[in-house]
Amino acid sequence: VRVTESGGGLVQAGESLRLSCTATGGTFSRVGMGWYRQVPGSQRELVAAIGIGSSTVYADSVKGRFTISRDNAKSTLYLQMNSLKPEDTAVYYCNVGGTFVPAAGRYYPVPPWGQGTQVTVHS
To answer: How many Å apart are CA 120 and CA 87, to the nearest integer?
Structure first.
């Protein structure tokens, strides 16, 4: 599987962005997926994950503001980000094909990772 993220940018606090992740080379509809983010000096953290049946989990910091969704026909994963805050500034990465355990609120990623897309939110 190869993934490519897009949709990042520079916005003001309170604005919205939609990230996209296109996957090629795998069976998109049969796997779980997730969005992660990373700031310099910190570990990559899970933002949201979605399962085969479209069950979802979110980090507490983004609940009610971000929505993860998938379009299996287009092999594309999305992250709609509303009411953005300066603390959402990070490089965002998608991951496809990992193990999603909704009951535990966990997603276990697998390689590869894409190049990421930068999201910068100014106050």
So the answer is: 9
What is the mean predicted confidence (pLDDT) over 79-89?
98
CA distance 18 to 16: 7
Token pair 């535990």 is at which residue?
A: 104
DSSP for 31-97 reads SEEEEEEE-TTS--EEEEEE-TT--EEE-TTTTTTEEEEEEGGGTEEEEEE-S--GGG-EEEEEEEE
Amino acid at 57: V
How is residue 25 written in tokens? 């080379």
Q: What is the pLDDT of residues 97-109, one digit of tens each?
A: 999 998 898 999 9
| Mean per-residue pLDDT over the chain, rounded | 94
**Residue 82's pLDDT is what?**
98
Residues in CB range of 32: below 8 A, 6 or more apart: 49, 50, 51, 52, 97, 98, 99, 100, 107
Q: What are phi and psi of 69, to 5 degrees?
A: -150, 165
The pLDDT assigned to 102 comes to: 86
